[in-house]
Amino acid sequence: MMRRYALLFSVMLAGCGGGMADLRQYVAEVQATPVPFTEAAPPALEIVGVPYLASSLRSPFRYQKVSLSEQEQTPAQDCPRPDLTRTKGALEAYAIDSFALKGILQDAQKKWALLQSGDGAIHTVGVGDFLGLYHGQVKAIGATGLVVAEWIPDAKGCWHSRETQLAMVIE
């Protein structure tokens, strides 16, 4: 049986040999045909030299005082704002979108959410805990998600509250 396959394979290889002479002749003809070039060369650009006078510029090795042309705006006193004097917790070093909700725990009095941070660690949070970069505070924990109220600053020095929901992804 194996000899039949070997014989068949050698016959097929024998059929592949030769027949390249006409291809080689065609390639030689194509390469011998001159290619007309009708496009003119672009005109040469004139380069104008600019003298460099370093004496009129500041030294890159000296400290330069930066002066602000606009005075910092003081925030309006009637704007709502988060407690900026509060000590930040460990979960406030992560962005909200880096957390993944992995589960909800509940007993008779309280619910907790299991959050996985971007580095893979699992953290337990309850209502009132802080997380996220924008002074986020957990407002509610539901059966499949949690609501975080964040404080977003604007250009005028005021803060605006925004609710972000983290939903559990069931795989």
From TrEMBL:
Signal peptide segment: 1-21
Pfam hit, one: PilP
Keyword set, alphabetical order: Lipoprotein, Signal
Superkingdom as given in the UniProt entry: Bacteria
Protein name: Type 4a pilus biogenesis lipoprotein PilP
Upper classification of the organism: Bacteria, Pseudomonadati, Pseudomonadota, Gammaproteobacteria, Alteromonadales
Gene name of the record: pilP
